[in-house]
Design brief:
Blueprint lengths: L4 E5 L4 H5 L12 H8 L2 H6 L4 E4 L3 H9 L6 E2 L16 H7 L16 H15 L8 E5 L1 H11 L17 E7 L2 E9 L3
Helix pairs in contact: 2-4, 6-7
Length: 191
Amino acid sequence: MPGEIVLLRHGETEWSRSGQHTGRTDLPLTEHGERQARSLADRFAAQPPVLVVASPRQRALRTAELAGLTIGRIDDDLVEWDYGDLEGLTTSTIRETYPGWTIWGGPVPGGEAIDEVAARATRVLQSVEPALERGDVVLVGHGHALRVLTACWLGLDPHAGELFVLDAGSVSLLGHEREARVLKGLNRPPE
């Protein structure tokens, strides 16, 4: 397939800066987050994607807009992991109740299990695969969910998402080497 999947994590928000888990809470970008998104415009102008799919959260939609992308579809399956009762908390705060906690293996009371996040990621990948025959596809979303999506693309257990880092405003590339699905670039900062 000639196309690549370009993963674009939304720009910085107040909670991404502070380390608070942000799933359902619909926060705007900070000024820095807006600058991150604008800095991507040249990259996408040089090689426009054939399809842009975005999470419905304003931080993802605004990132796409400022990056000069035309959203072809908004997909609820691209929303961030639902952290349930842990929404808005930092990892250090969560560890006061659950020592050693990580999103990858700890409890998420009132939220999503990793298999549910992986099922959403798989649906997104299946839905964009036909467009890859025509060119690049951009997915604008969120850190943890895109990390799970990366693991799913590579045929790994969804827990392998803990091995990838996606900073706010970063770009990653998923593609092929011959028939094999590969990771072509990870966590590239905005230019």
